[in-house]
Amino acid sequence: AQRVTQPEKLLSVFKGAPVELKCNYSYSGSPELFWYVQYSRQRLQLLLRHISRESIKGFTADLNKGETSFHLKKPFAQEEDSAMYYCALSGRNTGFQKLVFGTGTRLLVSP
Amino acid sequence: ETGVTQSPTHLIKTRGQQVTLRCSSQSGHNTVSWYQQALGQGPQFIFQYYREEENGRGNFPPRFSGLQFPNYSSELNVNALELDDSALYLCASSLGGARDTEAFFGQGTRLTVV
């Protein structure tokens, strides 16, 4: 079964502090992993995907197959990072993209 | 380039009724996926349409059905509404349905079943 777990519903940090949003997944094959973000009153949008191996808005995420994790990290949080973050996977065994989302983590960055 | 648009934004229906939700995909996109997001949960995959054919389906009963039109816009139909169908319904479009494709989401339709 495909499953994504985000253990924290809320993560509250101060501006300038490091941030790590946790994501663990369950999948028997090699999944595609994504982080989607939803800022206040905006639509859900892609933040980054593991296949791209890129840093977006200072965020990075490394796929750890041994620990089945895809944690999202940023060394210095900014107030504008406050948003809802969803980790998602898409299994390779299907012929189409079926995104399986976690329940999301709300990041609150205080001044 | 226009983004994904969904209509209506809000809807209230009575249990047992039928509802149709609409989605216009982003310009150039030929694939539309629908997701249901219950309060406090992440989006759950309902189904995907690629070039007017259903391309994949999640664990939703047959009373959830859809259509994709030649212009790649799409409809989600739900028959015999139940209280648990109350949720935010999201439409996402993409160019092709490959597993690593970026999905572009609409703002959603908030459905309340009373």
How is this structure best described in words?
With 111 residues, chain A is mostly beta strands. Chain A starts with a strand and ends with a strand. Chain A has strands at residues 3-5, 10-14, 19-21, 24-26, 32-38, 45-49, 60-61, 72-74, 83-90, 99-101, 105-110. In chain A, strands 2, 5, 6, 9, 10 and 11 form a 6-stranded mixed sheet that branches. Chain A has a 3-stranded antiparallel sheet with strand order 3-8-7, with no helix packed on it. Chain A has a two-stranded antiparallel sheet with strand order 1-4. Chain A is 0% helix and 43% strand. With 114 residues, chain B is an all-beta fold. Helix content of chain B is 0%, strand content 50%. Chain B has no helices and 11 strands. Chain B has strands at residues 5-7, 10-13, 19-24, 31-37, 44-50, 53-57, 64-68, 74-78, 87-94, 104-105, 109-113. In chain B, strands 2, 4, 5, 6, 9, 10 and 11 form a 7-stranded mixed sheet that branches. A 4-stranded antiparallel sheet of chain B has the order 1-3-8-7, with no helix packed on it. Chain B is globular and about 35 Å long. Chain B starts with a strand and ends with a strand. The mean pLDDT of chain B is 93. Classes of the chains: A mainly beta (111), B mainly beta (114). The A-B interface holds A 4, 32, 43-46, 49, 51, 86, 88, 90-92, 94-104 and B 3-4, 31, 33, 35, 40-45, 48, 50, 55-56, 58, 90, 92, 94, 97-108.
List keywords for this structure.
heterodimer; A: 111 residues; mainly beta; six-stranded mixed β-sheet; 11 strands; globular; B: 114 residues; seven-stranded mixed β-sheet; four-stranded antiparallel β-sheet
List the helices and strands and how they pair.
The complex is a heterodimer of chains A (111) and B (114).
Chain A lengths: L2 E3 L4 E5 L4 E3 L2 E3 L5 E7 L6 E5 L10 E2 L10 E3 L8 E8 L8 E3 L3 E6 L1
Parallel strand pairs in A: 2-11
Antiparallel strand pairs in A: 1-4, 3-8, 5-6, 5-9, 7-8, 9-10, 9-11
Chain B lengths: L4 E3 L2 E4 L5 E6 L6 E7 L6 E7 L2 E5 L6 E5 L5 E5 L8 E8 L9 E2 L3 E5 L1
Parallel strand pairs in B: 2-11
Antiparallel strand pairs in B: 1-3, 3-8, 4-5, 4-9, 5-6, 7-8, 9-10, 9-11
